[in-house]
Amino acid sequence: MPTLVTRKRNLKHNVAPPLIKRLGNAMLRALELPDAELSVLLTNDREIQTLNREHRQKDKPTDVLAFAMDETVADPAGILGDVVISLDTAERQARARRRPLIEEVRFLLAHGVLHLVGYDHAEPAEKREMVAMTRKLVRLAPLPQAPERRPKPRRKLPKGSKK
Questions:
Q1: In this predicted structure, what is the pLDDT of residue 153?
Q2: What is the pLDDT of residue 32?
Q3: I need a labelling partner for 140 at 20 to 30 A (CA). Which of 29, 124, 133, 155 fits?
Q4: Which pLDDT score is estimated for 156?
């Protein structure tokens, strides 16, 4: 499928690139862009701060950055662009929101993908539309269900023994 996920080495966070790829592909299908190419980089605060400084002149870490390949052309079969997610910042935000890290990463991925297809949140009306669309993408890219934890079967005691 068209999502490529790169994970920076030596990250302390355990986020599986195959799962991020599956989420990215689901989001592209939901946007009716199943053949578009998306690149996702999972990184740390130090690296995203460097990118934020170089591209946005903001010398601080951020949660997600999106770099559209070509902001003037919406080619459904072309290269959409890059989404960069800081797992350090995502972890802090997930803790503050009392949700698992993977849910925060999924939210940030949806936010970044929407920037790549032209959504913004500079104005209140734009923000409302982008928040609604982010929620929709998150719903359309479900996480796999964790297996149910079943209690261990009770061991039968031999006949004649007491508890």
A1: 61
A2: 92
A3: 124
A4: 63
